[in-house]
Structure formats: C-alpha cells, structure tokens
Amino acid sequence: MFAFALSMTFLALAAAPADAVAQPTQFQLDDLRAREEAAQRRAVDQGNQLQALEARLRAEQAVRDLARPSPLVPAPDVPPRASPAAAPAMQDYPMIPDAALAESNRRVRAASRDPR
C-alpha cells in the first residue's frame, strides 16, 4: 500500500507540470491575433512601398532614355517622283464630247424633277 501511495504521488508530481501549462486565455489569443494582423498590414505596406519605388525607378529610367540622344536613323529609300514626261498622254484616255455630257446632264435633271 505504501508503494502504491508512493507511485501515485510520483505520478501526481510528474503530471503536475503538464497541468501547469495552462491553455492560453482569450486575452492572449486576441493579443496574438492583433500582432498577426499588424504584421500582415506591415507586409502589405512594405509591398506597396516597393511597388511605388519600382514604378518611380521605371519612370526615371524612361526620362533618362528620352533625354539621351538617339542614334540617327537613315532616311528611307524613296523612289523619285514620276516626271511629267513619264505621265501617260491625254490621248490614251477616252474622251466624251462636251455636248454629250450636257445632254446627259439635262436628261438626269429632267428625270429627277418629273415624278412618275
């Protein structure tokens, strides 16, 4: 019986540290959540600052690129314009006499005035 009591006391002492580690309180949990949220906000803020700095760097690089003189681009090879002598002669095109054009114009105007 003494051995049983001694073993029970030993077991109670061995189990005591496990019971001594109490579960975190609600206050501790809320504090931990608040710290996690603050860390997350800091990470987002740092990411935003990094993106702003990268955009600023790209803008400054673009300004430097525009300020730098560009190498001369050679002029494109443009064929010379056709000279008047190379233009086709007027006699190559069909000609309509002025009287025929006037008569056609008169008929069109008459047809547009006379509704049928």
Uncertain runs with pLDDT below 50, 5 residues or more?
A: none
Largest sheet: none
Question: How much helix, percentage-wise, in residues?
Answer: 55-70%
Q: What fraction of the residues are assigned to beta strands by DSSP?
A: under 5%
Radius of gyration: 49 Å
* Count of helix runs: 3
How many β-strands, per DSSP?
Answer: 0
Give the mean pLDDT: 80
Task: Summarize the topology.
Elements lengths: L1 H19 L5 H42 L30 H16 L3
Description:
The protein has helices spanning 2-20, 26-67, 98-113. By secondary structure, it is mainly alpha-helical. Helices cover 66% and strands 0% of the residues.
Précis, in short:
The chain has 116 residues and is mainly α. The chain has three helices and no strands.
What would the keywords be for this entry?
116 residues; mainly alpha; 3 helices; elongated
